[in-house]
């Protein structure tokens, strides 16, 4: 079976991966499309650092995750697929049914996240296993390439839900990568009347307005805080210094939602947040209900994800796609279609 795997920090093509066999409660599916996520790019570049940070945490469901960086690693968690066959004593949708799922595999040995694994296949493969109880049917007629973006859209929806923003409050989104775009889309569908986006890339600023931002600013010209007075700030950059700069510049009573994943140690001045009574909310992933709500929003046309798809490759082109995604003016979301 064909797949793209991470090996020594690079995505490489294989045509000799054994086809998985579904166990009880599991379903074998054929992958129709899988988005390349920024977290996959992070892991390719900072895998050792990410694993060390994860394993050093207490109280995290993934704190016991082990991955051998010296062996091939399977990835791909933004996927759409078709049902092929069910495991023993497993009731599920009929073969050929288009489905998606939150990226988790229920197995005899426990819960296996479909994110980075030496053994559990992800969406960068011809076929993979999914959990029958977690399958969500893709509505008839919805392009599977669009359904594959349910997962990142759910991340944006979760951030917006956590913010508690109301339609009359002004939102400022810092960073217009895929997650920033998902936040903008969720703000738009939530009826927020003043959405401001900020990014250095002119291409991404233009795309941000397509996704629902009312204004798109270039931080190279002026600080966004000189042009707008936000009530809620969404940080979707994930670079050192951003949080502290927001605390220094934001108005009194601002709510800051941190969605960007910064892999470096950072420094903040608590005094800024204390003096202004700024509320800081860190967010990760989404709830199952937010996943299904995002799929429904895409299927019903409330969110048009088509403009986000800026490239499409086969399994043999994943490595090159990882390299191309480093250029923010060239791509937003590249899909893998096995």
TrEMBL record:
<dbReference type="InterPro" id="IPR036291">
    <property type="entry name" value="NAD(P)-bd_dom_sf"/>
</dbReference>
<feature type="domain" description="Alcohol dehydrogenase-like N-terminal">
    <location>
        <begin position="23"/>
        <end position="139"/>
    </location>
</feature>
<dbReference type="Pfam" id="PF08240">
    <property type="entry name" value="ADH_N"/>
</dbReference>
<protein>
    <submittedName>
        <fullName>Zinc-binding dehydrogenase</fullName>
    </submittedName>
</protein>
<dbReference type="Pfam" id="PF00107">
    <property type="entry name" value="ADH_zinc_N"/>
</dbReference>
<keyword id="KW-0560">Oxidoreductase</keyword>
<dbReference type="InterPro" id="IPR013154">
    <property type="entry name" value="ADH-like_N"/>
</dbReference>
<dbReference type="InterPro" id="IPR013149">
    <property type="entry name" value="ADH-like_C"/>
</dbReference>
<feature type="domain" description="Alcohol dehydrogenase-like C-terminal">
    <location>
        <begin position="178"/>
        <end position="299"/>
    </location>
</feature>
<dbReference type="InterPro" id="IPR011032">
    <property type="entry name" value="GroES-like_sf"/>
</dbReference>
